[in-house]
Automatic annotation (TrEMBL):
Native species: Lentilactobacillus sunkii
Name the UniProt record assigns to this protein: DUF389 domain-containing protein
PANTHER family documented for this protein: AT15442P-RELATED
Source organism, top-level taxon: Bacteria
Chain ranges passing through the membrane: 21-39, 45-66, 78-97, 117-134, 141-162, 168-190, 211-232
UniProt KW keywords: Membrane, Transmembrane, Transmembrane helix
InterPro entries in alphabetical order: DUF389 (IPR005240)
Length: 422
């Protein structure tokens, strides 16, 4: 059985605090790798960078210095951390300044809104790290802690914010790094004190130092707690809204769903609802714990149809670049000609319907749109001629059969073909 001892902990901590140019060169390389991973939105690259990063050593050293009341180790750790943070931020800033990729990736955005869960991860990770450091063979625990607590990505994101003069990224990512570093150090200090008691040492941690750590911890936790509450609250509201939509608007096709403040905005395609029905829907929000919310229902249909004008307006609202293509046999302009793997199937359905119902159909739009859950939907929009209404049911059955024959799921919507296209 492996023994956990203070001498082993002391030796492992001090070994990591030696300032060497090779270590700082490794840190710089790790920072550039992490920046590339964040830039191209690749989690594996970011994880690889965290594996070789030496940033954990000074953070753990700070905690050890506090828990052991060793001012020499504490000052040495703080100095090393300051140097490494400077190297990291400068390296990241330079990289993002010269990088040709300026788009904000999901990996970067994920480092701008710290929550209470980041505090818990840093605490638990810190405990795991100090236990590992107190063992003769820590195994792969320390690299795992480095990945879980993610010290490097926030610093890279700070560099991104500086290079793009974006204070939101600088403040958000800087706060995330502060959370991670502080609570890893705090967990290390608590673990060090525990091991000292376990080994029979006499504690000499001043009461003033304990109070300062407690106050600082509370101050740092408050903003992340507010952020965590916001995430939980928004998740609850979205869940309740989904239940409301499923129960009250199951016959409608929801093209857009958003909640802003106390306002719920829904864009729908389907049978047009009267003002009285919309009022009843608003009243029923309270049954789904959405009291005080105002329902803004944007109906894209006129009567039982969606007009081409409203449909094109919807496409612009969603910002969908993989949207719709006109019937190739018509004289209308293409709205968009970008398709996915079902392109050929949709075009075949389009051609077959146009061939069978040339008199009943004035135009057919096919393509894909994104639903509220960001999933792609294959869409066939049929514009009926003045004489085509009587064949509407028959045309829908034919379209459904063609889709089934080609093993593709489609959403069929009829539009008013009497309106001329622009």
């Amino acid at each position: 059985m492996q023994q956990i001892s203070m001498p082993t902990l002391n030796q492992n901590i001090r070994n990591g605090l030696n300032f060497t140019w090779s270590t700082q060169a490794i840190l710089f390389c790790a920072i550039i790798i992490a920046c590339i991973g964040l830039n191209v939105d690749s989690a594996p690259i970011v994880i690889g960078a965290m594996l070789i990063s030496p940033l954990m050593a000074p953070v753990v050293g700070i905690g050890y210095g506090l828990g052991n009341s060793n001012s020499k180790v504490l000052i040495q750790s703080l100095r090393l951390l300051l140097i490494q943070v400077t190297i990291a931020v400068v390296g990241a800033t330079v990289y993002f300044f010269i990088s040709p990729l300026n788009a904000t990736s999901a990996q970067l955005l994920a480092r701008t809104e710290p929550t209470l869960w980041d505090v818990l991860i840093a605490l638990v990770g810190g405990f795991a790290g100090i236990i590992s450091s107190a063992k003769k063979d820590g195994g792969n625990i320390v690299p795992g802690v480095a990945i879980a607590t993610a010290l490097m990505p926030p610093l890279c994101t700070v560099g991104y914010g500086i290079s793009h003069l974006n204070t939101t990224f600088i403040v958000g990512a800087g706060y995330l790094f502060l959370i991670n570093a502080f609570f890893i150090a705090l967990a290390t200090a608590i673990g060090t004190i525990f091991f000292r008691i376990r080994s029979g040492e006499k504690l000499n941690v001043p009461v003033r130092q304990q109070l300062v750590l407690l106050v600082v911890s509370i101050i740092i936790v408050i903003p992340s707690s507010i952020s965590a509450y916001s995430i939980v609250h928004n998740s609850y509201i979205n869940t309740q809204l989904s239940q409301f939509i499923e129960a009250k608007l199951s016959d409608q096709y929801i093209t857009k769903q958003s909640v802003s403040g106390k306002r719920i905005e829904l864009s729908v395609i389907g049978k047009r609802l009267s003002e009285e029905q919309v009022k009843d829907l608003t009243k029923s929000l309270q049954d789904y714990h959405l009291d005080g919310y105002q329902l803004d229902l944007n109906q894209l249909t006129k009567g039982n149809y969606i007009t081409p004008k409203e449909f094109q307006k919807y496409i612009k609202q969603t910002g969908n670049t993989d949207a719709i293509q006109d019937n190739p046999s018509s004289s209308g302009n293409n709205i968009n000609t970008s398709f996915d793997k079902n392109k050929d199937v949709l075009k075949t359905i389009q051609t077959d319907l146009n061939s069978q119902y040339s008199k009943e159909i004035s135009n057919i739009f096919v393509g894909k749109v994104k639903d509220t859950d960001n999933s792609a939907k294959q869409l066939v929009v049929i514009a009926l001629s003045k004489t085509g209404e009587a064949s509407r049911s028959k045309i829908k059955k034919t379209a459904d059969k063609l889709a089934a024959d080609h093993n593709v799921r489609i959403t069929i919507q009829f539009v008013d073909g009497s309106t001329k296209k622009s």
